[in-house]
Here is the input.
Amino acid sequence: MAPTSLPKLAGRVPQRWRRRVPMRLRNALVARFGHPGDEPFDPAAHPARLNLGCGYDKRAGYLNVDLHGFHGPDLVGDVRSLPALPSGRYTEIVAQDVLEHLERADGPVALAEWRRLAAPGARLRLRVPDLPSLLRWLREKDDPDHHRRVLHHMFGTQAYNGDFHLSGYTELLLCDELFRADFGDVEMGLHDEWLWDVEATAGGSPLGLVWGPGFHAAEVGGGPRWAAESAELCLCLGGERREEIALTLSLSRHADADTTLQLTGGGLEQRIELTEQPTEHSLQLALQPGVTRLSLTTEGRPADDGRRLAFRAGGEAAIAALA
Here is the structure.
């Protein structure tokens, strides 16, 4: 009789018992001996795009991965270590509402693993709560039900193991973690005024363009963002040296608005007359590593469609030597 392999023996152990083995030990065993069960996982049989920590948000055209089998993913696995998946294969990696569920020390571990999986130039798409936005939201009303609602978003639903929020992020911290993991060319903006929607490129330059408080969420299909009477635009620079940054902004106003824009910060102070047609403005900034905050404020009458629409802005930033 042929000997039974260790993965096959492990496959006969009920999954609820296997989950009692510490996560790092399980990952080490999988890396050494393979996944429990009769059939090894075949990455080539699945798309070269990843949806990590998918929960019930399973997406067609992606390899859907989740820690919990009851979500019915294509692969049950820990997003911090996925030894069944090959390096450099995946052209897009989505991780919506994932990083905040990991202990602080494990955020960099997960990002390093996702960088291993990413093909050159692959896009990483994240969504994580913004801690400062949650704190601002908490202070809006002194009402216990309002506070409970905000704390629910801050700490997670806590409905089951893995659905607790164990860490928080700011724009600077998130950019820094991405740069350290060799993701760059970061662009991020607020969704529902408290969640960061983030895109980054594997191997990109250590620079982030952050559409902060005051900017409304990007419209379907992307492009310029509407903003209220005042908004904050941040530039996050990684590394250890000062860099010249080329910032190009496309600015306009709503047809029903009559506004003038004042831009200050990063050594800049400019008054800009806005028109209905987008106008490009090329700016040069000398930045130190860290975050530089630009304030964009308007005078005059904004438009209103249920949101305050004082001006519209789009643009891009690049390290000048790489532009």
